[in-house]
Amino acid sequence: MKYYLKQIYFYAVIVVAVALAVFCGYLTYNQSADYSNRNMIYYVLGVLICWYMSLQMHEAGHKFFGLFCGIDVRMRATRFFSSSIGCEISPRYELKDYRKSFLITTSGGLAVNLVLLAAGIVFTCIPIANFGNYYVLNVLLRPLLPTSLYIFCINAVPCMYKDGRTDGLAMLEAIRRDDCYQVAEAIMKVQGFVNTGIELRYVGEASLMKVPQIQEDDPYFIILTELRAEYYKAIGNTKKHAFYQRRYELLEQAYVPQRKRKGNKNNGRK
């Protein structure tokens, strides 16, 4: 998707989500009768709670789905209005079908957001009075509609943002077996071998070198470059280790935002 189309889509989703949040607030105010002001306070609080819940449950969806297919998922922080909700994934052991496990894990966040979105629609459509003494629960959870819609739409569209791939793009590349996904699978296979207990030096040079050539600013290429540096260090090839280590450091400085440079960068990122 072209840059200007991505920007239009990104801001359009924000506008729609904010408009829905305002609509739900207006609906809540009109249904609140004698306690409208108090309920509006609850509603604003609910927006904050539901935003955090929608964001964290998206990541938890990846983690939960990953449990069933041998994938470890490590959550990472995002901005308030993030253009992609990201996480780091790594096979816990050697897998039989890396693509299937990758697709299942990647789809987990979208699936959870769809469930939350449906819950938000239900809470919005049911009048506050129907909840009786539990009306506060209805007010607090109504914002699941705009917040979950935002996170689902941002991640479902196949785009590459500065923050990284969306779930939709990662899944599309895996389905089509694009070059980018083949590199990601090569990384996951090496990680699977190592996490099984095999030392990196026994993985084999071909596992890291016989892969398609992709753009150097692609996160998969940067991770692959670091793995190559670590591999040559493990086998004692100081010349190649120095080359790939320097190459990795230059790539990281050029393309990896400062806030992402902390922590373990060896995990395959969506």
Description of the structure:
By secondary structure, this protein is mainly alpha-helical. The protein is built from ten helices and five strands; from the N terminus they run ααββαααββαααααβ. The strands form two sheets. It has a three-stranded antiparallel β-sheet with strand order 1-2-5. A two-stranded antiparallel sheet has the order 3-4. β3 (160-161) and β4 form a beta hairpin. α1 (3-31) packs antiparallel against α5, α3 runs antiparallel to α5 (144-156) and α9 packs antiparallel against α10 (238-255). The longest helix is centred in the first third of the chain and has 32 residues, at 36-67. It is elongated, with a radius of gyration of 22 Å.
Strand content: 5-15%
As a whole number of angstroms, the C-alpha radius of gyration is 22 Å
Q: Output mean pLDDT.
A: 86
The N- to C-terminal Cα distance equals: 17 Å
- Which residues sit in consecutive blocks of at least 5 with pLDDT less than 50? 77-85, 262-269
Number of H/I helices: 10
Gross morphology is elongated
> Reading side by side through the largest sheet, how are the strands ordered?
1-2-5
Structural class: mainly alpha
Strand count: 5
Give the helices and strands as they follow along the chain. Answer: HHEEHHHEEHHHHHE
Helix content range of the residues, please? Answer: 55-70%
The profile of the biggest β sheet is: 3 strands, antiparallel
